[in-house]
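We both want to read discrete structure tokens more fluently, so let's practise on a single case. Would you supply a protein for us yourself, any chain you care to pick? Would you write everything just below, so we can both look at the same thing?
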Amino acid sequence: MKGVKTRLLGITRSRTVIWKWIQKFSILLKCRIADDLPKVIIVDETNLQVKDMNLWFWYAIDPETRKIVYYKIIWNRTSLACKKVLPGIGEILWKIT
């Protein structure tokens, strides 16, 4: 499948580039993902600029271990977008109660 292109988040990239990115990112995340869910979390977002687009990387971390509990990438930073992120975090945290 040489030369096959994949469209991810509106950007065309080769499958090899995407595969390599996933491999690198998964290695970094492996040591940063929390094993147990905390009682308290910190939620924040970071702007990711990809060419002429702005994406938002939302994440929740355990303040004691600084490990990631939840993350999601979305297209905008509106109140509606925030309402989509928070239920995802809630679903994870409510599983432990």
